[in-house]
Amino acid sequence: MAEEKNKGLFITFEGIDACGKSTQVRMLEEFLRKNEQKVICLRDPGATPISEAIRSILLDNKNAVMSPWSELLLYEAARAQMVEESIRPSLASGCIVICDRFYDSTTAYQGYARGLNLDIVEQANQIGSVGLTPDITFILDLDARVAAERKRKIGVPADRMEAEGYFFQEKVRRGYLNIAKQHPQRVKLLDGSQSVDEIQRHIRSSISPWMELML
């Protein structure tokens, strides 16, 4: 028997730290709710008790000696729990699921930036996502120096991943650019230096064909 297609829509947002994706997630959620859509917003890693517990381990500065391979597997474990416990049931019920990061983050951070074998990372992503692929992914592209200045102005203490610094974030950015080239049908690359309203207009325009199919 063929697998039943999801009734909902799975949207993911990606980009380096401080690129503005969380703001866009919030704006899109508000827009969809105003238009009486069923929406759930999640973050990866996180969104479930087990996944949030793993997140705390991953981002704790006390765990600076963590192996990149341990890091990879922890991200995948948190993701698998989120998919099974939250994402799949929500999609099956016809909900629009918006996720702040998903497996493209693992490819960019652990693959391109950490230097882990990309083929192995892809295999791990398949396991961690339990075979689930986003319908559409938005990558907000922003110069790592601009992002660093944004974080400096905010003044929020950096977590373990954010503390890696400019050169690490620039590797992550190049990884995301490669991902966008490799998956042009799924991934929409947006200029993160534009105004938040302009970026949001591009996002709404991109998802409008999907919304029409759901009506």
Largest sheet: 5 strands, parallel
Ends apart, CA distance between termini: 26 Å
Task: Give the CATH level 1 class.
Answer: Alpha Beta
Instruction: Supply the number of helical segments.
Output: 8
**Percentage of β-strand residues:** 5-15%
Shape: globular
User: How many beta strands in the DSSP annotation?
Assistant: 5
Provide the number of structural domains. 1
Unreliable segments of 5+ consecutive residues: none
Q: Going by CATH, what is the homologous superfamily?
A: P-loop containing nucleotide triphosphate hydrolases
Strand order of the largest sheet: 2-3-1-4-5
Share of residues in helices: 55-70%
CATH architecture: 3-Layer(aba) Sandwich
Task: Considering the chains and any ligands shown, give keywords for the structure.
Rossmann fold, globular, 215 residues
Topology overview:
Blueprint: E1 9-14, H1 21-34, E2 39-43, H2 49-59, H3 68-92, E3 96-100, H4 103-113, H5 118-128, E4 136-141, H6 144-154, H7 166-182, E5 187-191, H8 196-214
What does it look like?
- Helix 2 runs antiparallel to helix 3 (68-92) and helix 4 packs across helix 7.
- The chain has a single domain (9-214), classed as P-loop containing nucleotide triphosphate hydrolases (Rossmann fold, 3-Layer(aba) Sandwich), CATH 3.40.50.
- The chain has a five-stranded parallel sheet with strand order 2-3-1-4-5, sandwiched between helices.
- It is globular, with a radius of gyration of 17 Å.
- The protein is built from eight helices and five strands, in the order E-H-E-H-H-E-H-H-E-H-H-E-H.
- The protein has 215 residues and is of the alpha/beta class.
